[in-house]
Write a structure and sequence with these properties.
Layout (H helix, E strand, L loop, with lengths): L2 E5 L1 H7 L3 E4 L2 E2 H11 L11 E4 L2 E3 L5 E2 L4 E5 L6
Parallel strand pairs: 1-7
Antiparallel strand pairs: 1-2, 3-6, 4-5, 4-7
Length: 79
């Protein structure tokens, strides 16, 4: 049983990895666990947006179930 948390751009750089497998929990709990494993993420996460199975996630208390994917997206520059 696992959830895939994927990191992009500055979040990937801060974590030093592109993804992590964690036990199902709320989105906030998953992010807390990711920060425990990769403390530099704490600097990036406040500016990030999140996708749960490719759909925008606004409520971090949402339960993330086994087999789901949570994407961590920092703000992107560009035009």
């Amino acid at each position: 049983m696992a959830v895939t948390v994927r990191f992009y751009a500055a979040a990937r750089k801060a974590a030093g990895i592109s993804e992590i497998q964690l036990e199902p929990a709320s989105a906030m709990q998953l992010l807390d666990r990711a920060v425990e494993a990769h403390p530099n993420l704490a600097q990036v996460l406040p500016q990030c947006s999140f996708l749960l199975n490719e759909v925008a996630l606004h409520d971090l208390s949402t339960q993330v179930l086994d087999g789901a994917t949570l994407d961590v997206l920092p703000p992107f520059a560009g035009g």
